[in-house]
C-alpha cells in the first residue's frame, strides 16, 4: 500500500512546482468555503472583473484607450445597465411574483374548502374518461367520486407544498439578499480596481502566491482561461437571449406572469437538464389555470417547444461549441457538488469549475509520458 502511494506521488508530484501549486489550489478552496462571509465581496468582484475584462481589452486594443480609461467606461456602462435592470425590470418581476404567491394562497384555501373548483371537476372528468378507455379490470377499480376526491387531495397537497417552499426557502433567501446591500457599493469599487490594476495585481499574485515554477502556470492558464472565459460570456448572453425571447412570446400570447415565466426560463439555462425540467412545470400549469383545456393551449405549448428546440439545436451549439466540452454525467455531478457547496453561485460556476478540474486532470505534469490528445479526441467524439 505504501509503495503504491509512493508510486502515485512520484508520478504526479515529482515535477518542480506541482506541490506548491496543489497547496495553492487547496488553500483557495478552503478560504472560499470557510471564509466566504469575509471574502465574499472580493470573490464576487473577481467574477465580475473576469467577465468584464474582455470589454476592457476591446477598448484598449481596438480603440487604443488607456487601461484606466477603458476600465472606467466599462464600469460606467455596467453600473448603468445594472441600475436600468433594477429600476425597470426587477420591480415588474417582483410584482408578478407577489401576485403569483397571493393567487397561490387563494387557490390553496379554495382547494382545502368544501366546494370543488371547476378546474378540479374538469381534471377529474378527463381523468375518468381516460380510465374508462382502458381495458378491464382497470375501469371497475375507480369510480367518479373517488377520482374527484383524488384530484382535490392532489391539488391541495401540491399547492400546500409549493406555499411552504416559497414561504420557508425562497422568501428568506430574498430577505437575506437584501441585507447584502453593501455589496452594491463595495463590489463595483473592487471590480473597477481589479480591472484598472489587472497587470499589477497579477504580478503580485505570481510573485508572492504562485509557485516558483512559472512554466506550470503558463501551461495551465491559457487552456483554462479560454474555456472558462468563453463559457461565462456565452452563458450570460444565453440567459439574456432566452429571457427576452420567452418573455416576449408569453406577452404576445397573453399568458399571465409573462415577465416571471420568461425570467424563470432564462435562469433555467444555468442548470442544464434539471432547470429545463423544473421550469416546464409552471409553464405548463399556468396556461391551464388561465385558459383551461382549450385548443389555445396547443399554440402556447407549440411556441414554447419551438423556442426550446431552437435553443438546444441552434443557440447553445453556437455559443458553447468551443467552450463546453463535458458529458452529461460530469455536468450533473458538478451541479450537484458545487451547488451543494456554494448554492446559486456554485450552480452558476459549476461548469467552469468542472472544466477547470478536467483541465487539471488532463494536463497535470506526469513523470510517465501520456498522450493527452487522445483523451481530448475521445471526449469530443
Rg, alpha carbons: 26 Å
What is the average per-residue confidence, as pLDDT, rounded to a whole number? 78
Poorly predicted residue ranges: 111-116, 369-376
Overall 3D form = globular
The helix content is over 70%
Distance between the termini: 36 Å
Oligomer: single chain
Q: What proportion of the residues form beta strands (DSSP E)? A: under 5%
| Main pleated-sheet profile | none
By DSSP (H or I, 4+ residues per run), the number of helices equals: 15
Would you tell me the structural class of the helices and strands?
Answer: mainly alpha
Pfam family, one: AI-2E_transport
Membrane topology: Multi-pass membrane protein
Organism: Succinivibrio dextrinosolvens DSM 3072
Main location: membrane
Structural topology:
Elements: H1 2-13, H2 18-34, H3 36-61, H4 67-112, H5 118-132, H6 144-178, H7 183-196, H8 198-208, H9 214-253, H10 258-268, H11 274-291, H12 296-320, H13 328-348, H14 350-363, H15 373-380
Helix pairs in contact: 2-3, 3-4, 3-7, 4-6, 4-7, 4-10, 5-6, 9-10, 9-12, 9-14, 10-11, 11-12, 13-14
Protein name: Putative permease
Subcellular location: Cell membrane
Main location: membrane
What does this structure look like?
With about 375 residues, the protein is mainly alpha-helical. It has a domain of about 170 residues. The protein has 15 helices and no strands. Helix 4 runs antiparallel to helix 6. The chain is globular, with a radius of gyration of 26 Å.
What's this, in brief?
The chain has 381 residues and is mainly alpha-helical.
Amino acid at each position: 500500500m505504501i509503495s503504491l502511494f509512493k508510486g502515485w506521488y512520484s508520478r504526479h508530484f515529482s515535477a518542480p512546482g506541482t506541490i506548491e501549486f496543489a497547496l495553492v489550489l487547496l488553500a483557495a478552496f478552503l478560504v472560499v468555503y470557510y471564509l466566504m462571509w469575509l471574502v465574499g465581496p472580493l470573490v464576487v468582484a473577481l467574477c465580475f472583473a473576469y467577465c468584464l475584462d474582455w470589454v476592457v481589452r476591446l477598448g484598449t486594443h481596438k480603440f487604443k484607450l488607456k487601461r484606466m480609461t477603458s476600465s472606467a467606461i466599462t464600469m460606467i456602462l455596467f453600473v448603468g445597465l445594472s441600475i436600468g435592470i433594477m429600476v425597470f425590470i426587477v420591480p415588474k418581476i417582483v410584482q408578478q411574483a407577489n401576485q403569483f404567491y397571493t393567487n397561490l394562497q387563494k387557490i390553496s384555501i379554495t382547494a382545502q374548502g368544501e366546494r370543488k373548483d371547476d378546474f378540479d371537476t374538469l381534471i377529474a372528468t378527463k381523468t375518468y374518461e381516460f380510465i374508462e378507455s382502458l381495458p378491464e379490470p382497470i375501469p371497475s377499480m375507480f369510480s367518479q367520486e373517488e377520482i374527484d376526491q383524488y384530484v382535490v387531495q392532489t391539488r391541495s397537497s401540491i399547492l400546500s407544498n409549493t406555499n411552504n417552499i416559497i414561504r420557508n426557502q425562497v422568501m428568506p433567501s430574498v430577505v437575506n439578499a437584501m441585507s447584502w446591500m453593501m455589496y452594491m457599493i463595495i463590489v463595483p469599487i473592487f471590480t473597477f480596481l481589479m480591472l484598472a490594476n489587472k497587470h499589477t495585481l497579477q504580478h503580485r499574485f505570481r510573485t508572492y502566491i504562485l509557485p516558483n515554477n512559472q512554466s506550470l502556470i503558463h501551461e495551465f492558464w491559457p487552456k483554462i482561461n479560454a474555456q472558462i472565459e468563453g463559457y461565462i460570456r456565452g452563458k450570460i448572453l444565453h440567459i439574456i437571449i432566452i429571457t427576452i425571447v420567452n418573455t416576449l412570446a408569453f406577452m404576445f400570447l397573453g399568458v399571465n406572469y409573462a415577465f416571471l415565466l420568461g425570467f424563470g426560463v432564462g435562469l433555467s439555462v444555468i442548470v442544464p437538464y434539471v432547470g429545463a425540467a423544473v421550469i416546464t412545470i409552471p409553464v405548463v400549469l399556468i396556461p391551464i389555470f388561465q385558459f383551461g383545456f382549450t385548443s389555445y393551449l396547443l399554440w402556447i405549448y407549440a411556441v414554447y417547444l419551438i423556442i426550446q428546440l431552437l435553443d438546444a439545436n441552434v443557440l447553445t451549439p453556437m455559443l458553447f461549441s468551443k467552450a463546453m466540452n463535458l458529458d452529461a454525467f460530469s455536468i450533473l455531478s458538478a451541479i450537484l457538488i458545487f451547488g451543494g457547496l456554494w448554492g446559486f453561485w456554485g450552480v452558476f460556476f459549476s461548469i467552469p469549475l468542472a472544466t477547470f478540474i478536467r483541465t487539471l486532470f488532463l494536463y497535470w505534469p506526469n513523470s510517465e509520458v501520456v498522450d493527452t490528445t487522445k483523451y481530448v479526441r475521445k471526449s469530443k467524439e
